[in-house]
TrEMBL record:
Protein name per its UniProtKB record: Chromosome partition protein Smc
Chain intervals for the UniProt region annotation (Disordered): 239-258
UniProt source species: mine drainage metagenome
UniProt keywords, alphabetically: Cell membrane, Coiled coil, Membrane, Transmembrane, Transmembrane helix
Segments forming domain Polysaccharide chain length determinant N-terminal: 13-83
Pfam families: Wzz
Lipoprotein as UniProt keyword: no
Gene: smc_10
Coiled-coil positions: 168-237, 324-358
A GO term, aspect molecular function: protein tyrosine kinase activity
InterPro entries in the cross-refs: Bact_polysacc_biosynth/exp (IPR050445), LPS_length_determ_N (IPR003856), XrtA_polysacc_chain (IPR014345)
NCBIfam families referenced in this protein's UniProt entry, alphabetically: pepcterm_ChnLen
């Protein structure tokens, strides 16, 4: 600790020996400081206060009907992003600041300076904003603040309109897209229904349809067996009444007809006419009757051919026997009924087989149908939601154009302070004096290090490493003492003059400020 104190004292002694260098440096720095401070241009501050009212009577009434964004958050973001390069470039053109920029580099420097000088302050959550700018020319500062206020208000309204237009455009594009998708889904669903009409019409009751078809088939088979039994009874009765063949010369008039077959064909044709009045040509009863008629006609041709080969065999006509004629007519009707029932059974069997085979495909068809319905429902739901959103967006835009996004109220219009707000010369002058003193001490210290001297014997011994026997003190006479005193007085006079100069400058600035106030 003693060594540290000794080194400090030695350093101070060296600085004191070079005090004249320090005094000269202090004066030079002090004069330069006064000159710089007094030559600094005055800057005037222009400011304006704006209150943004985001509350509206219409907003709670339209809650849940129209889209209402968080206006407070939008205004807060706007205040933080207002001082952007595009906005500042626009501000420079509005305030005619770009007239002095001859080159692109000048314009960039101007924009950078404006971005550093413009300020937007907010008072907590009250939506009260203060816009300020400082410039050497009061009128120019006022123009800049006026332009900034205009940009602030226009950005709040313009951005909202731009957002609304963009949202409406996007929603309309999505509606058109979903409308096409919905039409395609409807076409696919329609084609699927047309293609699988029989299968998908009653898909949930398909097994009931199979059961019903099986029941109808069994009933038709039962009716067919009953009709066949009745026909067989008639055949047996007719065979018991069949006349005996007589060997006679053939009659040319009887070779072209077979009475029992002709009567059956006539009865079947009458039955066919009645069936065609009720059903179409594809009906199973009609088809079966036509088939029986064709078989009887073929049988008639075979019978005539056999008679011609027999060479004269001829049946005795039984037309005169009414019982036999009635049996033949009943047999004909029974054959027609059997043929119709047989055709019906065949048709029911085909339908039953078709339903049974289709039942294997029904789960896959039901799954595909459900998928198509689900896709269609999703597309329809999204489409209806987008249409609803479009109406809400349009209503929001109308509400915004009616009430505005927010009410921008000018609390304090742009004004310029009557006196400059900077530089604060009354603060800078004492700082400059302190800087001058510190620079003087620094110069003295540097000079003492450049031209060092030995202050005591220990310094010589420490530096050379040689033993020191002792030291010789300087004995000053009266003249030397008087000269030393004069030099000391001159030094303090110079130092005091520096303080007096700064004091005079402070007094001058204070009087000037008081006079302007």
């Amino acid at each position: 600790m003693d060594e540290v104190i000794r080194q400090v004292l030695l350093t101070l002694a060296g600085v004191w020996r070079k005090r004249w260098y320090g005094l000269l440096a202090a004066w030079l720095v002090g004069i330069a400081g006064i000159f710089v401070i007094l030559s600094m241009p005055d800057k005037y501050e222009a400011s304006a206060r704006i209150y943004v009212d985001t509350q509206s009577v219409l907003r709670p009434l339209m809650s849940g009907i129209a889209v209402q964004p968080n206006v407070d958050q939008q205004i807060a973001i706007l205040s933080r992003t207002l001082i952007s390069r595009p906005n500042v470039q626009r501000l420079a053109r509005m305030a005619d600041l770009d007239l002095g920029a001859k080159t692109k580099e000048d314009m960039e420097r101007l924009v950078d300076g404006l971005m550093n000088s413009l300020e937007i302050k907010t008072a907590g959550r009250d939506n009260l904003y203060t816009l300020s700018y400082r410039d050497t020319q009061p009128e120019r500062a006022k123009r800049v603040v006026q332009s900034l206020v205009s940009i602030f208000v226009e950005s709040g309204i313009g951005d909202k309109r731009k957002d609304s237009d963009s949202a409406l455009k996007f929603i309309q594009e999505q509606i058109s897209s979903y409308e096409k998708k919905l039409e395609q889904a409807e076409d696919r669903l329609k084609d699927f229904k047309l293609k699988n009409m029989n299968l998908s019409e009653e898909g949930k009751n398909y097994f009931a349809r199979i059961s019903g078809a099986g029941t109808k088939l069994k009933d038709a088979q039962l009716e067919l067996r009953e009709a066949e039994d009745s026909r067989d009874v008639l055949k047996r009765e007719l065979e018991g009444e069949e006349p005996v063949m007589l060997s006679e010369a053939p009659d040319s008039g009887s070779l072209g007809s077979v009475p029992e077959i002709d009567s059956r064909i006539d009865a079947l044709k009458r039955n066919l006419d009645s069936l065609l009045l009720r059903y179409t040509a594809q009906h199973p009863d009609v088809v079966g009757t036509k088939k029986v008629i064709a078989e009887l006609e073929d049988q008639k041709r075979q019978e005539l051919k056999a008679r011609s080969k027999a060479g004269g065999a001829r049946m005795i006509s039984a037309g005169a026997d009414p019982v036999l004629q009635q049996l033949r007519m009943s047999l004909t009707e029974a054959d027609a009924n059997v043929a119709a029932l047989h055709a019906r059974v065949t048709e029911y069997e085909a339908r039953f087989d078709e339903l049974r085979n289709a039942a294997k495909q029904q789960p896959e068809i039901d799954a595909e149908f459900s998928k198509m319905n689900r896709d269609y429902d999703i597309q329809k739901k999204n489409y209806e939601a987008l249409v609803s959103r479009r109406e809400s967006a349009a209503m929001s835009e109308q509400m915004g154009s009616t009430t505005g996004v927010a009410d921008f109220r000018m609390i304090d219009p742009p004004r310029v302070s009557p006196k400059p707000v900077e530089p604060n010369r009354l603060l800078f002058l004492p700082l400059a004096l302190l800087g001058a003193l510190l620079s003087g001490m620094g110069i003295s210290f540097v000079a003492s290090q450049i031209w060092p001297v030995f202050i005591d014997c220990r310094s010589v011994r420490d530096l050379t490493g040689l033993p020191v026997l002792g030291g010789v003190s300087l004995l000053k006479d009266q003249t030397s003492v008087r000269q030393e005193r004069h030099r000391l007085m001159a030094f303090f006079a110079g130092l005091g003059g520096l303080f007096v100069s700064y004091g005079a400058a402070l007094l001058f600035l204070w009087l000037a400020t008081a006079r302007n106030t």
